[in-house]
Amino acid sequence: MSEKKATRVGYGEELVRLGADNDKVVVLDADLSNATMTNAFAKAYPDRFFDCGIAEANMITMAAGLSSTGLIPFCSTFAVFAGRCFEQIRNGVCYPRLNVKIAFTHAGITVGEDGATHQSIEDLALMRSLPGMTVICPCDAVETGRAVRAAVEIDGPVYLRLARLPTTIISQDMPFVVGKANVLREGAKAAIITCGLMVENCLLAADLLAAQGVEVTVVNMHTIKPLDEALVRELAAKMPLFTVEEHSIIGGLGDACAAVVAEHGGRLHKIGINDRFGQSGKPAELLELYGLSPEKIAETVKGKL
Amino acid sequence: MDCTALKSRCNQIRRDIVSMLAAAGSGHPGGSLSSVEMLEALYGYKLHVDPKNPKMPERDRFILSKGHCAPVLYATLANHGFFPKEELLRLRKTGAMLQGHPDKNKIPGVDACSGSLGQGVSVAVGMALGFKHQGLPQRVYTLLGDGECDEGMVWEAFMASAHYHLDNLTILIDWNGLQIDGPNDKVMSLGDFPGKLRAFGLDVIEVQNGNDIEQVIAALDTPVTPGKPRCLLCHTTKGKGVSFMENQASWHGKAPNAEEAAKALSELEAQA
Predict the structure, then answer these.
(1) What is the average pLDDT score of chain A?
(2) B123: chain A residues, CB-CB within 8 Å
(3) A220 domain-assigned
(4) Which residues does chain A have with pLDDT short of 70?
(5) Chain B environment of A50 (Cβ under 8 Å)
(6) Exposure winner among A25, A115, A119, A231, fewest CB in 10 A?
(7) Cβ contacts of residue A26 below 8 Å, gap of 6+?
(8) Same domain for A188 and A47
(9) What are the strands, taking DSSP E only, across chain A?
(10) SS3 for A136?
(11) Contact: A95, B113; criterion CB under 8 Å
(12) Nearest-CA neighbor of B32 among B75, B88, B3, B62?
């Protein structure tokens, strides 16, 4: 449990391995390859790396054109620009159902010091609203590698939400099947459904709760769309649900699960960014401030039970 | 070359545009009529395509970036046998094949979902890059409107096409001078348009009359400059062929009623 690695690094490393196995894979970036970590692919396969300059919209629809010629493009930039090129993703990629992979990094408030303009808290909401889009938010660098491989197996658009912050590898022994969540810990008092970097924090929160005699279930819902609705229904029938995400409570994992609970019954409380923007600061301090540290998550769960 | 047959087909395409828009009750006649000769020069002469095998992998690609002018594309495709002409009169109807804007998954011969302005040219750049990267011989053609060039991403796409030396790409621009709200110069001046295109690295040929199919074909046949994307900047007349639509911005996005359609058709028949 000691190695720390960012999901963006896991992405960059897997791309290089993928490039060796599949010569149809090409990578596009918008002048951020040293941050999104596509630079390793660019170095290994310079003829299959296309820098698009600081022009995210054109990157996405160029990728649409590349995929139309039989290539499998991965596009990367910061997740906050999912909004800037949303309409290109909608009309250029999803409507024609093209085989374009969109792997955006630096999602959430753990971007840290760059502040609110660069902290994406709405990309899951945007991407899951698009017909035909698969939306995955891996919990660590190892799961990111599996998600990259799984994305290539899907003939259609996939969005991968990745992070800047190095975090603990926790998924070594987890299976990864798109649309099938992993139950990491079982307890009867409540179930915490989470994704991305919050998986580790929720496991730590579960330890804190257990120390107080509150045993909770923790679910790694790495695929936000298609959601593992069967598991949400099953858990909601037995215990109250909490969703935890490094994203606005509007439109993300919480709302995806809430829709299931609204239809089939149960109780759910959303923990996330409460309809406000982020700010500059150290990632750990921001997580504390926004209620997403292990301690704050445990406190909220206990308070709402 | 003898362009008699192509000119005759241009007249038929214009009549089909008027008929289908009248039947639909909405749509865009002005920019459809202005680009008839460019479409017919492509489908009647230049493109390597097969109407009986529209998905033939080695086909050239054409992307109508100004996708709102779908009627000219559909009428051209139907007249070249990509699908039955009866479909034209079902344009924009619920459940019909012919969508208000081009749809690659519904319509034989259509290779992109275009119509959100600025995106089609970018898709075309990606296609040309993909073919070039794989050493494939297909050429990619795209047609933009002048008003469409207000979109910033058009210039992102132009820049990328020059950066990646896409000499397998031909960008046609329908420069009729009018957009929805009025003349280009009133809505958003394009300034030195040919100069801007050249400054972005395109190999520009200015076609003095883009409604003269012989001029369009001559420009399409001009050998490309190795390493440079080709641009045909075509001066045209919006609403070309229908007297009361010509040079009228008001006919950008309005369908003719039955009376107007009859008048337009009789004018076009007289030109046949």
Answers:
(1) 97
(2) 61-62, 64-65, 68, 92
(3) yes
(4) 1-2
(5) 129, 164
(6) A115
(7) A48, A49, A50, A66, A71, A72, A73, A74, B133
(8) no
(9) 4-5, 25-29, 49-51, 72-76, 101-104, 134-136, 158-161, 167-168, 182-185, 190-194, 216-220, 223-225, 241-248, 268-273
(10) strand
(11) yes
(12) B75
d(C-alpha B124, C-alpha A41), whole Å = 25
Q: How distant is the Cα of A54 from the closest Cα of chain B, in angstroms?
A: 9
Q: Which residues pair with A270 in a beta bridge?
A: A243
Q: Is residue A136 part of a domain?
A: yes
Compute the radius of gyration of chain B from its Cα atoms. 17
Residues whose CB falls within 8 Å of the CB of residue A153, separated by 6 or more in sequence, listed in order: none
* A224-270 per-position pLDDT tens digit: 999 999 999 999 999 999 999 999 999 999 999 999 999 999 999 99
Which residue, of A136, A168, A200, is where some domain finishes? A168
Q: What is the percent of chain B where pLDDT is above 90?
A: 100
Q: What are the strands of the beta sheet with A216-220, ordered from one edge?
A: A182-185, A216-220, A190-194, A241-248, A268-273
Check whether residue A157 and residue A14 sit in a common domain. yes
**CA of residue B87 relative to chain centroid, distance:** 20
Chain B residue numbers with beta carbons less than 8 Å from the beta carbon of A57 are 118, 122, 152-153, 156
Instruction: Give residues with Cβ within 8 angstroms of A42, minimum separation 6.
Output: A27, A29, A33, A49, A51
Please give the ipTM for the structure prediction.
0.95
| DSSP SS3 for A203 | helix
- What pLDDT, on a 0 to 100 scale, did the predictor assign at position A3? 80
Q: Cβ–Cβ of B123/A47 closer than 8 Å?
A: no
Q: Is the peptide bond before B229 cis (omega within 30 degrees of 0)?
A: no
User: What is the mean pLDDT of the segment spanning B38-53?
Assistant: 98
pTM of the predicted structure, to 2 decimals: 0.96
Mutate to test the interface with A, among B55, B101, B122 (most CBs of A within 10 A): B122
Angle separating helix axes A7-21 and A141-153, nearest 10 degrees: 40
Q: Do B125 and A64 touch (CB under 8 A)?
A: no
Helix axis angle for B119-133 and B152-163, nearest 10°, is: 10
Over residues B1-30, the pLDDT tens digits come to 899 999 999 999 999 999 999 999 999 999
Number of domains comprising chain A: 2
CATH code, A190: 3.40.50.920
